[in-house]
Design a protein that fits this description.
The structure holds 2 protein chains of 2 kinds. Chain A is an alpha+beta fold. Chain A has 2 domains: about 1-65, no CATH class; about 75-180, 2-Layer Sandwich (60s Ribosomal Protein L30, Chain: A). Chain A contains 5 helices and 4 strands, in the order ααβαβαβαβ. Chain A has helices spanning about 15-20, 70-75, 95-105, 125-145, 170-175; strands spanning about 80, 110-115, 150-155, 175-180. In chain A, strands 1-4-2-3 form a 4-stranded mixed beta sheet. In chain A, strand 2, helix 4 (about 125-145) and strand 3 form a beta-alpha-beta unit. Chain B contains 5 helices and 30 strands. Chain B has helices spanning about 1-15, 50, 55-65, 85-90, 135-155; strands at about 25-30, 40, 70, 95-105, 110-120, 125-130, 160-170, 170-180, 185-190, 195-200, 205-210, 220-225, 230-235, 240-245, 250-255, 260-265, 275, 285-290, 295-300, 305-310, 320, 325-330, 340-345, 350-355, 365, 370-375, 380-390, 390-400, 405, 415-420. In chain B, the strands form 7 sheets. In chain B, strands 1-29-28-27-26 form a 5-stranded antiparallel beta sheet. In chain B, strands 3-2-4-5-6 form a 5-stranded mixed beta sheet. A 4-stranded antiparallel beta sheet of chain B has the order 9-8-7-30. In chain B, helix 3 packs across helix 5 (about 135-155). Classes of the chains: A alpha+beta, B mainly beta. The interface of A and B includes residues 124, 131 and 156 of A.
């Protein structure tokens, strides 16, 4: 159940104390967290989760509202793969679930998944392998709530390594899919 | 790295009678192959230095790179009007001798004349005069090498053809169009983003390639003379691996728009692609057979990437490669009889191979382990490919048996993705 904490900040602390004493039922009143600027007509700007500072005994649950890039800013954005593989490993399920949630709750948000390979092998086959990695991650996102229209899977094959070097350490860092906002 | 190159240049200059290292062409030659090469002497053309191009050195390097000639001591001052002392040239081991001159004309062009003699028979076999602008001096030298090549072997030379390749320097990429020796070229495209898979149209007027300038792989077609370019395929996902049909009217491409990389056919003028393969595997790197009737391509439908052949209109595919678990990057010789490709062995070594399509076992062409993208010369006698040595990407040409391999001069940039242009220049 999503809760949005909405209150108008007039003179800062005074307003907070007033709200504090009004017995607002947090469970069913939609509220919105603000950073101190006057509330706009509709909320399209980035929203920051406010910690429940200065509201006395009423517990305020900080909520990160999906929408802007800030919502997924703190999530990991890279899924790593084994050699010659495009299987999304279990380790990355939480990462994908989190992004899928963000996408599911913000139908206007779009992302691109960029697939990559390590340097070994041909450029065209690696382009296709990177594409499979990107598609695998996009499919996982779709299974967990994102819609196809929000996603494009593309590939850079071995053209954009994240790490230079011809050893397994570098190769492992290059076999990846990156999730980026559009 | 630079010191090493100079040492190599000096060794070559000393050993082969070259002038000052105008042509540092590092060559690998298997011992014993010299007996099959025609020994030829190409003397300095009179006044060639004044023209700004070492005409005779270009001709010498061209003939050697073909694998069918070797240079003998070419010192001496002759020109096309000379009467050579044939016994003394026979004494140097020459079977053929060429001498000429370069004369500046009043209008700024250059008059190049030369003669070719059969030293054994003691007679002139070829004489030519060309009038060219300064900008065309290199091309004139290549044409002379072609004429000599054809006269002495009966086969067409490829010295006046062009190459396309990609360089990367400090994070910038450039698509080059050069002479067949890798030099004298122009930049067709520069980009901060990668460029891969250049493919010449059969008439040599257009280049298709893959550009990442839009944040994804897109197939572009560019008119070489005008530089005009347009995107041929920019569908959802990756668009890549363009290959022209022999009549220049269609291209096979790899598109991932239906969820996985598959082969499609698309008109050269653009239009809706027609899907050719229908597998749940990666199908990519299609190339046409020279008769236009079939496509060779890479598929991992059997579990790992192998080369297959199917009708150009689509249909069942037959597997062509059976050795090893990773065979990619097919190229077909102009006579349709030989497949060149890259095979992975020992897990991490990638090597250019050839296979007689009429039957037989594959043979390795190189002894390097980081080979990519083989491409046939239009006379079918040479391959160009990319490889890696001492941390640098570089281009090599080789005879099909791998016995004469020449490194094309690298400027210090990483060089990759070579494509050999057609005969029509």
């Amino acid at each position: 159940m999503k809760q949005v904490l909405r209150y108008t900040v007039l003179g800062g602390v005074v307003a907070l104390l007033a709200a504090c004493g009004s017995n607002v039922k947090l469970d069913d009143t939609p509220v919105e967290s603000r950073t101190g600027s006057p509330p706009p007509a509709d909320s399209t700007g980035p929203r920051t989760a406010q910690q429940g500072s200065g509201v006395g005994s009423q517990k305020v649950e900080p909520v990160a509202i999906g929408g802007g890039s800030t919502a997924s800013a703190n999530l990991g954005r890279v899924v790593y793969f084994d050699y010659d593989s495009f299987v999304v490993k279990e380790d990355f399920r939480p990462l994908i679930e989190s992004h899928a949630k963000v996408l599911a709750t913000n139908k206007g948000k779009r992302m691109v998944v960029e697939g990559h390979t390590d340097e070994r092998g041909g450029r065209e086959y690696n382009l296709a392998l990177g594409q499979k990695r990107a598609e695998a991650v996009a499919k996982s996102l779709a299974l967990l709530g994102a819609s196809d229209a929000q996603l494009e899977a593309v590939s850079f094959g071995k053209e954009r390594p994240a790490a230079t070097g011809s050893d397994e350490g570098a190769w492992a860092k290059n076999r990846r899919a990156e999730l980026k906002d559009r | 790295m630079r010191i090493q190159r100079r040492r190599i240049s000096a060794a070559l200059a000393a050993g082969l009678g070259f002038g000052p290292a105008a042509f540092a062409q590092f060559r690998v030659e298997i011992a014993g192959v010299g007996a099959t090469q025609l020994p030829v002497a190409i003397t300095r053309f009179r006044d060639e230095d004044a023209s700004g191009q070492a005409i005779s050195a270009i001709v010498r390097a061209d003939l050697e790179r073909s694998g069918q000639f070797r240079s003998v001591d070419s010192s001496g001052t002759l020109d096309e009007r000379s009467a050579p002392e044939f016994p003394s040239w026979r004494g140097r081991g020459a079977d053929a001798l060429a001498a000429g001159s370069v004369t500046r004309l009043p209008d700024g062009r250059f008059d190049i004349r030369y003669k070719l003699w059969d030293v054994v028979k003691g007679e002139e076999v070829l004489g030519q005069a060309l009038a060219v602008s300064a900008a065309d001096l290199r091309l004139a030298a290549h044409r002379i090498a072609d004429a000599i090549h054809e006269k002495l072997t009966g086969e067409r030379g490829v010295n006046a053809t062009r190459l396309a390749y990609v360089t990367r320097t400090a994070g910038r990429y450039a698509l080059h169009i050069t002479d067949a020796d890798g030099e004298g070229g122009q930049v067709a495209l520069t980009s901060p983003h990668s460029i891969i898979s250049p493919a010449w149209s059969p008439d040599g007027r257009r280049l298709a390639y893959v550009s990442f300038e839009n944040g994804k792989a897109v197939v572009m077609v560019q008119d070489v003379a005008s530089g005009q370019r347009r995107s041929l395929a920019n569908y959802r996902g990756s668009n890549s691996a363009p290959a022209w049909s022999p009549d220049g009217k269609r291209l096979a491409v790899t598109l991932s728009r239906d969820g996985i990389s598959q082969l499609y056919m698309i008109d050269a003028e653009g239009g809706e692609p027609r899907r050719l393969t229908n597998t749940s595997a990666i199908d990519t790197e299609a190339v046409f057979a020279p008769d236009g009737q079939s496509l060779y391509f890479v598929s991992d439908r059997g579990g790992s990437p192998q080369i297959y052949r199917m009708p150009a209109a689509g249909g069942n595919a037959d597997r062509v490669t059976f050795n090893g678990s990773y065979n990619i990057s097919p190229a077909i010789s102009p006579d349709g009889r030989t497949l060149a490709y890259v095979a992975r062995s020992n897990g991490s070594q990638f090597r250019v191979m050839t296979l007689d399509l009429g039957g037989g076992t594959p043979s390795a062409v190189t002894d390097t382990s980081d080979d990519e993208s083989p491409s046939f010369a239009p006379n079918g006698r040479l391959l160009i490919y990319a490889t890696r040595a001492q941390g640098r990407d570089l281009l090599m040409t080789t005879t099909l048996d791998g016995k004469i391999r020449t490194r094309l001069l690298s400027t210090g940039a990483d060089v990759r993705e070579p494509a050999w242009g057609p005969f029509n220049r």
